[in-house]
Amino acid sequence: MARPRSFDPDDVLEIARQVFWRKGFQATSLDEITAASGIAKPSLYAAFGDKNALFLKVLDRYHDGILGWAERTLAQPAPAREAIRQWLTGFIPYCSGEKGQHGCLSINSATDGSLDQAEVRNSIERYNRRLEDLLRARLRGSRAEFRKGFDPDVTAHTIMVVHAGLLALAHQRPDSKQVKAVIDQVMGLLA
């Protein structure tokens, strides 16, 4: 009798992320994840639950990584305009060219029918709200840096819309210069 293969849950989550990201939640089967990870279905179920539960763990981990990076970048002592520019330009490799062709796991999930799953919809909404709150807080705290009448709430939301749009269009593999030009336009809001 063969011994069950031991596995590192973090490794399995990373493999599952790659499969979900490449194929989408709806088109991915647990068979594909077990084949890619080498983990038997019973072990996968025992560690993560069903496909929906596994995907939520992958998605939440993905969101946490982006939010952690956003928190660190936006909390820098630099002027808000520079911190936000650095945050946005950090996405250029993920919004352009070969590396960007898979887009964003969160945006992909929001557009592939996965929002029919309440838990997935809630995860994406929570992530977007937290990210926009980080931007809004940084802009509100730096209001003196901007022109009279500057609206940090509308500006934070506008930045989120552009950010989501860039990630949605990443599948078209735009040139990084195009993405940077869009970011430069957005930075005009922070005058």
What can you see in these coordinates?
This protein has 191 residues and is mainly α. The chain has a domain at 59-190: Tetracycline Repressor, domain 2, CATH 1.10.357.10. Helix content is 68%, strand content 0%. The protein is built from 10 helices and no strands. It has helices at 9-23, 30-37, 41-48, 51-74, 80-89, 92-95, 105-111, 118-141, 152-169, 176-187. Helix 4 (51-74) packs antiparallel against helix 5 (80-89) and helix 4 (51-74) packs parallel to helix 8 (118-141). The mean pLDDT is 90.
> What percentage of residues falls in helices of 4 or more residues?
55-70%
* Topology-level CATH name of the domain at 59-190: Tetracycline Repressor, domain 2
Task: Report the structural category.
Answer: mainly alpha
Shape: elongated
Assign the CATH superfamily of the domain at 59-190: Tetracycline Repressor, domain 2
**CATH-level-2 architecture of the domain at 59-190:** Orthogonal Bundle
End-to-end CA span: 69 Å
